[in-house]
Amino acid sequence: MSHKSNSLKQLALQKFKRNFWGVFSFYFIVLVGVISVFAYVLAPDNSQYANQMHLAIHSKKPGFKVQMLIMPSQLKTNQGVFDKIFFGKKNVNTEIPISEYRIENSILTYKEYASDGLKGTEKTIKTDLLLNHSPKDFIKEKSFLFGTDKYGRDLLSRVLVGARISFFIGFVAVFISLVIGIFMGSLAGYFGGKVDAVIMWIINVTWSIPTLLLVIAITLALGKGFWQVFIAVGLTMWVEVARVVRGQIISAKEMQYVTAARALGFNDFRIITKHILPNIMAPVIVISAANFAAAILIESGLSFLGIGAQPPMASWGAMIKDHYNYIILGKPYLAIIPGLCIMSLVMAFMLIGDALRDALDVKS
């Protein structure tokens, strides 16, 4: 039996490897996962939430470059390496975009950056205020590969950090939906009768409520925030898993191996967990991939409505909300870039779901 099981797994794996789009989507999802975990290491702006604002350079096109005067602060931050890597750096320095500067008699004179043909304010700083370093040590050229948003923040950094929410909400939401859905579906399918009737009534009532409205209601009840959205999305996606598990168990519980398990005196819990569930997980895995994509879309919709991840936290949906009106103002990339990120990640999960469905189909 073990040899046969291993053979079926190897066969499914070989079929999956032959699916180009499935393999491509898998590696793309892994890449997004790595970016999500190490976003602050990869982001040009590694401040917390990539929230370093420069209003003087707002809404600049991709590839924009500017000289930045970095004024060091006397404040010290006690922040560990782990904290910096995974939660961003607490930036206490002041960054000032400048258009030109000169040094005369130990005095730094600079002109603040101003767009649209305006002239920036000219200011001076004594070099002893720069901790006895050369002023050139604090003037660096910054490049913004994706340009800047309407607050002058680095759009590339916001996209990288925003990937964390969209990616991890899929894991949390699917985990919650699997725990509740498998539990409820197993009880309904295995025991039947009144237990099935009650659980199906709960499923049908939950199913009849529009998903977005139910998520909004749960979010408002739990409060606005990061984890509240994760829990709300997970609590609305379990019904599909429960219906699939229920239908599969109703068919599987009449199989001979289940009858043999009962004859050997195994309890119901062992029969469900050790014998039935391992044999019906193929459709559950496929629907979980679809739920990943659905969770990302729901979170993006909630952030667009303003009840998802709250500022200054970066979120692809919130980035579209902030900049969708720029589409008609000649700067559509501010909304198109995060929109393409959402589309590509959702498509990757849908494609890998199709690939898993074909690979796990025993009839093909």
TrEMBL record:
The membrane topology term of the UniProt record is:
Multi-pass membrane protein
* Keywords, alphabetical: Cell membrane, Membrane, Transmembrane, Transmembrane helix, Transport
Specify where it is mainly localized.
membrane
- Establish whether keyword Membrane is in the entry: yes
Q: Which residues cross the membrane?
A: 20-43, 165-191, 198-220, 226-245, 276-298, 333-356
Q: Which Gene3D superfamilies match?
A: MetI-like
User: Which Gene Ontology cellular component terms are annotated?
Assistant: plasma membrane
Q: Is Transport one of the keywords UniProt gives this record?
A: yes
Its BP terms in the Gene Ontology are: transmembrane transport
Q: What is the top-level taxon of the source organism?
A: Bacteria
Q: Subcellular location, in the record's words?
A: Cell membrane
One Pfam family assigned to this protein is BPD_transp_1
Positions of the ABC transmembrane type-1 domain: 163-353
Q: What's the family?
A: Belongs to the binding-protein-dependent transport system permease family.
Q: Which PANTHER family match?
A: D,D-DIPEPTIDE TRANSPORT SYSTEM PERMEASE PROTEIN DDPC-RELATED, OLIGOPEPTIDE TRANSPORT SYSTEM PERMEASE PROTEIN APPC
Protein name (record): Peptide transporter
